[in-house]
Write a structure and sequence with these properties.
The complex is a heterodimer of chains A (about 140) and B (about 375). By secondary structure, chain A is α/β, with parallel strands linked by helices. Chain A contains four helices and five strands. In chain A, helix 1 links the parallel strand 1 (about 5-10) and strand 2. Chain B has about 375 residues and is an alpha/beta fold. Classes of the chains: A alpha/beta (about 140), B alpha/beta (about 375). The interface of A and B includes residues 25, 86, 89, 99 and 112 of A.
């Protein structure tokens, strides 16, 4: 089983604690950032394999800006990102398609996220990214 | 717009009068009072200018050859209702002034009038315009605040519940073997009850958006077959758990209705999940759609417990749920059919229901076909 280094960006300590425990149980190591600023600093410093990002941090749309900043940064732009948020969960099946320019994430998951889905998607997203670069 | 441009906008006054002397004196008096004056000696070009670039105040003579003042007023009220109109009446005939006021003019100025009278009445017109503009601005501000409030509240309500749900999910996922049987059962009950809360928040938000006209987008179109297949696929786990089979019958491929995919998805999801939930073990749900004379007919039939006749008229009432022995164990917010009814109404359709206790229920939705509407770009290839 491959271990990934995952940066979890979420301002809710409880959501972060349970998600960290889940990811650790799947063999990954987890770094936690509470704010967008912290997230960018930790991403540059620790180069995670994957970033899990909430949209609404202390500011309503802070996560979007973090994501755009990641994509602009030549050193960070290739790190895959999964956006996890409760803001679009109001209609099941409604998804922001990842290819949209304004939300350049690899995946979009609604909060609360099912444990098996999260673990599967984490693995899949990192593997897809790895293959893409190998080509 | 820069501040100078904005000031020009708020100082403009258009004067239409066939009498060159009045036109000239109006221009002089009002320019000196600080207004930006545009004058026209005939109705047609004056009206054209007002329609293209509405000033705060229009001063118009009632009696003119060609297009008269009444006609100008009618047109301006229709095409630029925010313009405050002051009429000039010859020979001080009160009857014509009253008629103009009835058409929507704000005030009148009987000939002959003094420069002071003109300045006073035009000044009042500007005050009225500014007041209307300010209240319009406040109204918009209030609406935006309400919109933000809605999504803020739903987010604030969800955040703590999400945190709790995530702990429970992870606990079951990682420590299932160590938990005593009783704890497992209770955790599962907690998850069910939290699920109810999420549904309630989502339904409440959907309903609020519907009532504000923000949910349904009529200018888009969706393929009922495609949306229905998506919904059925998503509801398959619920159907399997309830031992209910779902069958789809589409008269053809690509049955397009007016309305965005998201609203149609909410509509179908509610109807089909009801048909599963209010069914019996080993029951069937049929999802049927066809085109009929420019309309799309969509039916969800179930072989479930049915609805007693006395309850049928109350379906779609907010928070109404049939409560008896057969439904006690079924979860629901009591808002699902209200949401369905409103979506169908917004789209200019009709929803009817037929039911027999112990036999089953048919929900039939008739929606306008999407003829001529260009949908949004469908998902990227």
């Amino acid at each position: 089983m491959t271990e990934y280094r995952i940066l979890l960006v979420d301002d809710d300590p409880d959501f972060a604690a349970s998600t960290t425990a889940l990811l650790q149980s799947a063999g990954h190591s987890v770094l936690w950032a509470k704010t967008g600023e912290e997230a960018l600093r930790m991403a540059r410093q620790d180069r995670p394999d994957l970033i899990l990002l909430d949209v609404m941090l202390s500011e309503r749309t802070e996560g979007f800006f973090v994501l755009q900043e990641i994509r602009r940064d030549t050193e960070l732009k290739d790190i895959p990102v999964i956006v996890i948020s409760s803001i679009y969960a109001e209609c099941p099946g409604f998804r922001v398609s990842p290819e949209k320019d304004w939300l350049p994430a690899e995946r979009f998951l609604a909060k609360p996220v099912d444990p098996i889905t999260l673990i599967t998607e984490v693995r899949r997203v990192v593997e897809e990214k790895g293959k893409g670069e190998g080509r | 717009m820069d501040s100078k441009g904005d000031e020009e906008l708020t100082k403009r006054v258009v004067v239409i009068d066939d009498d060159a002397v009045i036109l000239l004196s109006c221009e002089q008096v009002l320019s000196r009072a600080g207004y930006i004056v545009e004058v026209f000696d005939r109705g047609e070009p004056g009206l054209e200018r007002v329609r293209q670039f509405p000033p705060p105040v229009l001063v118009v003579d009632l009696k003119m050859p060609g297009m008269d003042g009444f006609e100008v007023i009618r047109e301006v009220r229709t095409h630029a209702p925010e313009v405050v109109i002051v009429v000039i009446t010859g020979y001080a005939t009160i009857a014509t002034a009253v008629e103009a006021m009835k058409l929507g003019a704000y005030d009148f100025l009987p000939k002959p009038f003094t420069p002071d009278e003109l300045r006073l009445i035009v000044g009042r017109g500007f005050e009225r315009w500014a007041l209307a503009r300010e209240s319009e601005r406040l109204k918009k501000q209030k609406e935006a605040a309400e919109r933000r409030f809605l999504s803020f509240v739903s987010h604030q309500l969800k955040t703590p519940a999400v945190a709790v749900k995530q702990y429970l999910d992870v606990m079951l996922h990682t420590n299932r073997d160590q938990l005593p049987e009783q704890a497992l059962q209770w955790i599962e009950r907690c998850q069910v009850r939290l699920g109810e809360m999420f549904s309630l928040i989502d339904d409440w938000l959907a309903l609020s958006r519907l009532e504000r006209g923000e949910l349904v987008r009529k200018e888009e179109k969706s393929d009922v077959c495609r949306v229905a297949r998506d919904v059925v696929e998503r509801l398959q786990p619920l159907a399997s758990k309830s031992e209910v089979e779902i069958h789809e019958f589409f008269a053809e491929e690509g049955i397009w209705v007016r309305g965005d995919e998201r609203s149609i998805c909410v509509l179908l999801e509610n109807l089909i999940s009801n048909a599963i939930k209010y069914n019996v073990r080993g029951g069937r749900v049929e999802v049927i759609s066809s085109k009929q004379e420019g309309q799309v007919v969509f039916e969800v039939r179930d072989t479930g417990i049915g609805i007693a006749e006395e309850f049928l008229p109350r379906l779609g009432e907010e928070f109404f749920r049939v409560r008896d022995e057969t439904t006690r164990h079924i979860q629901g917010t009591g808002l699902g059919l209200t949401i369905c009814r409103k979506i169908v109404e917004e789209l200019g359709g009709k929803m009817t229901v037929e039911s027999k206790v112990g036999v089953g229920t048919v929900f039939r939705v008739i929606l306008p076909e999407a003829g001529g509407i260009d949908g949004p770009a469908k998902e990227a290839q």
